[in-house]
Amino acid sequence: MAGTAMDSFVVVWHVYRLPLLVALFALFVAARVYRQFQSRSKTTASSSVPASPRSQSPEKIVELAAPAEKVVAPPTTKDNAKLAAKPATGPKRVLGKKPAKTIGGRRPPVSFIQPLVFFASLTTTTERYANILLEDLRAAAAKRADLQNRERGILPPQIHDISYIDFDDFFTTVPQPPSTSPGTRYVYCILTPTYNIDTVLNTFLDHLNETHNDFRIDTAPLSKLAGYSVFGFGDKEEWPTEEEGFCSQAKEIDRWMAKLTGRKRAYPLGMGDVKNDAEVALKEWTSGLLDILDDILENGGLGEGVPGSGDALESDEEDAGNEEDQKENSASTMVDLEDIKMNGDTAAPIPVDFTTAGKATSVATEDTAKEMVPKTSPTYAALTKQGYSIVGSHSGVKICRWTKSALRGRGSCYKYSFYGIKSHLCMEATPSLSCSNKCIFCWRHGTNPVGTTWRWKVDSPELIFDGVKEGHYKKIKMMRGVPGVRAERFAEAMRIRHCALSLVGEPIFYPHINRFLDMLHSEHISSFLVCNAQHPDQLEALHRVTQLYVSIDASNRESLRKIDRPLHRDFWERFQRCLDILREKRHIQRTVFRLTLVKGFNVDDEVMGYANLVEKALPGLVEIKGVTYCGTSTSAGAGLTMQNVPFYEEISTFVVALNAELERRGLKYGLAAEHAHSCCVLIASERFHVNGKWHTRIDYERFFDLLEQEKRDGTSFAPEDYMKETEEWAYWGQGGFNPEDERVYRKTGKNKNKALEAAPES
Ligand SMILES: Cc1cc2nc3c(=O)[nH]c(=O)nc-3n(C[C@H](O)[C@H](O)[C@H](O)COP(=O)(O)O)c2cc1C
Ligand code: SF4
Q1: Does the keyword S-adenosyl-L-methionine belong to this entry (predicted)?
Q2: Cβ of 234 below 6 Å from ligand 1
C-alpha cells in the first residue's frame, strides 16, 4: 500500500515537478523582493538622509510658503506622503504613466500649476536663493490670480528642503492632485549647490539613479509632472569650467530628472556662480521659467519638444549617452528631400522666360495668382518635415544647427569669428522659397519651386515678418528641453538680433524685399542677404543691408553653367552685370563674394578666373568655404560625391594661392580670418585693416545709428564706419574657435576636416 502511494507520488512528481519548481522559485523571488522593498523604503524615509548641519526644524522649512491666495487647497506634505507609493501586500510597480482621473473618459486639462521648490544647502547660500525664488513665484502667482479667472492659474509655491523630505514622496512618485482640483499639475523647481565631498546630494542622486534603474518602477515614474527645471550654484573661482566640476551635481540632477520625467525639462538648466552672477542668473532663469508656466497653462502642456525643431542632430543625450549614438539616432530620422515623392507636385518647375524680369510685381499681385507653396502640396509637406516653417505662401524659416550648437554653449558658426554674430541670436529665413538656379550642391533640391520671374501670389511683408519671427521663436522654444541648452543663452535667444536671408530660394526675388528689410532694421535686426547673381535689376534696386553677398560658384561661364545649372539663358551676362553693380555698391555697402569650392568642379586652375572676378567687383570681403556634402540623389545625379568635398588643407592651399594672385595684381587684400571648424576662410580688403589690425567684425548698434541718421537727414555712410576689430583667436592661422565655448570633437573618421553637416550654414 505504502509502496503504491510512493509510486503514485513519484508519478505525480515526475509529471508536475517542473511547474511546481517554477512556482516555488517565483514565491521565493517575490518574498525577497518584498523584503528588500520594505527595508529600502524604511531607510530612505527615516535615516538615509544625513542630518542637516543647520538647526532649523523640518516642519519650519516645509511650511515656509504661506499661500498668497488660497485658490484650491494643494496637498500638504503629509497628504503627499500618504499618497506616495507605499507597499501594501507585495511589490508594487510604480507607473509614471498611470492614467490620471478622467472626466468623461478624458484626462482633465491643466487648470492649475503647483510649483514645488526643492533645495539643498549646507552653508545656507542655496537656501537664501530658494527663498528669493519662492518670493518671485509667489508674486507671479498672485499677479496671475488677479489677471486670470479662478479656473486656471499658478498656485502659491511650496518649498521643501531635500534633507528633510522622504524622497519616495516626490521622487519615486508624483503627488496626486487634490480631488477638488484634478487639473492641478506639479512643476518641480530644484535649486542645488555642488559639493565634491559626500553630502545629502549624493544620497539624493543615488535615489534618482536607483529609482530609474529599479525594475519594479517604471523608468519614468515622474512623467505626470507638468515639468521640472534645475538651477545650480557653484564656485567658478575654484571650479572655473564645467569640465573641472562647476555645477556638476546640478547637471547630474538635471539629467536624472529628464529620465525620470520622460524629458519634461520645462526650462533649461540654469547655473550661477556664487561669487559673481548668481542672483542675476537666477532671476533670468525664473522669468524664463514663468513664461513656460504660462505656456503650459495656455497649451495644456509643454507642447512639442525637440522632434521637429529642425535638425535631427539633436537627439537626447539622456537616452543616447554619447554624441555618436546621438548621431545614429538622428540619422535614422533624417528625411532626404529627394526621397520624398513629388507625385503631382503642382509647384513643379515651370521655367518662365527671363524677359519679364523687373515687371514681376504687377503680374504677381493679381488675385488669381497661384500660391508658390500651397499647404496641400508635397513641397510643403517635404519642407515642413525637414523642419522648415512655411510662412504665408512663399516664405520660410528654420533654425540652423549652429543656433542649436550656440544654445548649448558649443560654439557659433563662422559668422561669429568673422563678423561677431552669435548664432543663438540669428534667424535664418527667406521671403522667397523659389530660386532661378538648380545648383548641384543645393540640399533642398527637387522640392523648391524654381522660376525666372515672380509668378505667384505675393504676401505682404508684414505677414512675412511676423510669421518668420513667430516661427523662429517657436523653434527656439522647442529647444528648451534639449540637454545642455544654457538657460542664459536660451533667454538671450528670445530676442532676434540677426537675420540671414539665405535659407532657400532667392530673397531678392520677393517683390517687397526692401520693405521687408526696413522692418528688420526697425527692430534692430541686422540683415545678411545672399543673392545668386542672377537678378541684376533687383540687386540694383536693393536698399541697404548690413552685409550683401553674391554667390560666386564658378569663375567662368562653362563652370558656372555646370554647377549652378541656371534657368536664365543669359546667365553669364546677368552674373557679370551683378558684379558691376556690386563694384558700385562697395562704397556704401559691405559687399562679399561667397565662394563654395567643389573639388573637381570649380577649384582646379580657377584661381586666375576668381582673381579676375575679384578685380572686377572689388568686394570688401571674400569668403571661401568647402561645399557641404548633402548626399541627395540630385547631387549624386550631378556626379557629386564625398570625393568632391575638399579637405581643409586643400581649401587653405587654394586660399593662399588666390591671395597671392591678388597681391601680384596689386589689389589690396589679405588673409584675415578662418573658422577651421566649418572649413571657411576670409580674405578681406585692406579697407578693413586699420592700425595693423583686422576689423572684419561689425558694430551693429553703430550700423543702426548710422542708418537712422541717414533716414533722418540723408547722411550717407560707408562700410568702414561700422567695422569693428576682429578677435585675435579668429585670425588666419589661429583656428577661429571662440575659447569661451565648449569644444566638441566629432569622430568623423577619414572624412575629418570635411564639411559633412546635413544642412550647411548660410
Ligand atoms: C567642500 C566644498 C566643495 C565644493 N565643491 C564644488 C564643486 O565641485 N563644484 C562647484 O561648482 N562648486 C563647489 N563648491 C562650491 C559650492 O557649491 C558653493 O559654495 C555653493 O554656493 C554652496 O551652497 P550652500 O551654501 O547652499 O551649501 C564647493 C564648496 C565646498 C565648501
Ligand atoms: S549658419 Fe547662418 S543661420 Fe545659422 S547662425 Fe550662422 S549665419 Fe545664422
Answers
A1: yes
A2: yes
Ligand 2 atom with minimal separation from the 416 CA:
6
CA-to-CA dists, residue 216 to 51, 81, 94, 156, 170, angstroms? 29, 19, 7, 34, 17
Assigned C-alpha cell, 101: 482621473
Per residue in 252-270, pLDDT (tens digit) is 999 999 999 988 999 999 9
| Mean pLDDT of the residues in the chain | 78
Q: What is the pLDDT of residues 624-634, one digit of tens each?
A: 998 876 665 55
Cβ–Cβ under 8 Å, residues 758 and 312: yes
Q: Give bridge partners of residue 551 from the DSSP assignment.
A: 594
DSSP, residue by residue, 597-640? E-TTTSSTT-HHHHHHHHHHH--SEEEEEEPPP---HHHHHTT-
Q: Which of 142-151, 168-177, 734-743, 751-760 has the lowest mean pLDDT?
A: 751-760
The answer to whether residues 212 and 256 touch, using CB atoms and an 8 Å cutoff, is yes
Residues 423, 400 contacting (CB under 8 angstroms): yes
CA–CA dist 220, 210 (Å, integer): 12
Dist. CA 519–CA 513, nearest whole Å: 10
CATH of range 373-751; options 3.20.20.70, 3.20.20.80, 3.30.1340.30, 3.40.190.10: 3.20.20.70
Give the number of C-alpha atoms closer than 13 A to the C-alpha of residue 5, restricted to the C-beta side.
2
Q: Please state, in angstroms and rounded to a whole number, the distance separating the CA atoms of residues 668 and 689.
A: 10
Residue nearest (by alpha carbon) to ligand 2 atom 5: 423
Give the distance (Å) from ligand 1 centre to CA of residue 274. 9
Asked if residue 187 lies in contact with residue 116, where contact means CB atoms within 8 angstroms, the answer is yes
Nearest to 481 by CA among 473, 470, 490, 472: 490
Longest Cα–Cα distance in the chain = 123
Pocket test for ligand 2, best of 423, 502, 596 (most atoms within 8 A of CB): 423
pLDDT value for 71: 35
Taking each continuous run of H as one helix and of E as one strand, the counts in the chain are: 24, 20
- 558-606 per-position pLDDT tens digit: 888 888 788 778 899 999 999 999 999 999 999 999 999 988 888 877 8
Residues of the chain with CATH 3.40.50.360: 59-69+111-299
Between the CA of 121 and the centroid of ligand 1 the distance, in Å, is: 9
Distance, CA of 201 to CA of 219 (rounded, Å): 21
Which of 334-338, 364-368, 524-528 comes out lowest in average pLDDT? 334-338
DSSP helix, strand, coil percent of the chain (3-state; round to 5):
40, 15, 45
CATH of domain 59-69+111-299: 3.40.50.360
Please give the grid coordinates belonging to residue 213. 534603474
At residue 307, the pLDDT reads: 34
